[in-house]
């Protein structure tokens, strides 16, 4: 589903656990897509805007501060 050279099985799992891509942005030729995950985190995915290749995921960010 993700196309590019850095795709791994964990990337597919991360995408499958993302509950919709609800945010998008771009900066310096990198397109970012993100959405909430089943694990109470925010998943983001980066793509090269010119080649449309998948660059990889960012680190999961907690959606709420730990208590």
In a few lines, what is going on in this structure?
This protein is mostly beta strands and 67 residues long. It has one helix at 9-16; strands at 23-27, 30-36, 41-48, 54-57, 61-62. The mean pLDDT is 80.
Reconstruct the topology from this structure.
Layout: H1 9-16, E1 23-27, E2 30-36, E3 41-48, E4 54-57, E5 61-62
Antiparallel strand pairs: 1-2, 2-3, 3-4, 3-5
Tell me what the structure shows.
- The protein has 67 residues and is mainly beta.
- The chain has one domain.
- The chain contains one helix and five strands.
- The protein has one helix at 9-16; strands at 23-27, 30-36, 41-48, 54-57, 61-62.
- It is globular.
- The model has no long low-confidence stretch (mean pLDDT 80).
